[in-house]
């Protein structure tokens, strides 16, 4: 399935200008039909999955309790 720049921006939650700049720089593969750029949707699947996995990992690390230090001495 192919998406326009506007649809791709909505799908990836990025701005249209940023998507267009990535297309023009060749960082996103796209087909130009003479009127608009068409971007293959599946090329983002792996990237978005990895991004979600990374977010979950960061959240897991942030939710992990800080262990008490066994070397702490009571100085009373």
Could you explain how this protein is built, in words?
The protein is mainly α. It has one domain (2-63): Molybdopterin biosynthesis moea protein, domain 2 (Alpha-Beta Complex). It has three helices and three strands. It has a three-stranded antiparallel sheet. The radius of gyration is 22 Å and the shape is rod-shaped. It starts with a strand and ends in a 13-residue tail after the last helix. 7% of the residues are buried. The mean pLDDT is 87. GO terms for molecular function: DNA binding.
Strand order of the largest sheet: 1-3-2
CATH architecture: Alpha-Beta Complex
Low-confidence stretches: none
SS class: mainly alpha
Helical fraction? 40-55%
Features:
76 residues, mainly alpha, Molybdopterin biosynthesis moea protein, domain 2, 3-stranded antiparallel sheet, 3 strands, 49% helix, rod-shaped, Tn1545/Tn916_Xis, HTH_17, SinI_DNA-bd
Write the layout of secondary structure elements.
Elements: E1 2-3, H1 5-12, H2 16-25, E2 30-32, E3 37-40, H3 45-63
Antiparallel strand pairs: 1-3, 2-3
Helix pairs in contact: 1-2
GO molecular function: DNA binding
Pfam families: HTH_17 (PF12728)
InterPro entries: HTH_17 (IPR041657), SinI_DNA-bd (IPR010093), Tn1545/Tn916_Xis (IPR038148)
């Amino acid at each position: 399935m192919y998406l326009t720049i506007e649809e791709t921006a909505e799908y990836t939650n990025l701005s249209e200008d940023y998507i267009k700049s990535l297309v023009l720089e060749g960082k996103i593969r796209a087909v130009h039909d003479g009127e608009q750029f068409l971007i293959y949707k599946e090329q983002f699947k792996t990237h978005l999955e990895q991004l979600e996995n990374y977010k979950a990992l960061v959240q897991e690390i942030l939710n992990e309790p800080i262990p008490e230090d066994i070397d702490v001495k009571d100085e009373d």
